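go over both lines:
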Amino acid sequence: MRELVEVIAKALVDKPDEVVVNERKDGDTTVIELKVGDGDMGKVIGKQGRIAKSIRAVVKAAATKTDEKVVVDIID
């Protein structure tokens, strides 16, 4: 899942080399933390959070294939 979020985020931002994705386990949930460079946060979140919701929906759909619970956090 980490690679999926990384590919999507790098395609959206102006500075793909500043994209950092970390994955950690929190009980039975996998938490994916996404950090982007200065000025790129708006591109990842989108108007009214639409792009962020779409990223979360794609990851959730991919996670259901493997019966995992995955949460995507976008960090400043």
In short: Helices lie at 2-12, 41-45, 50-65.
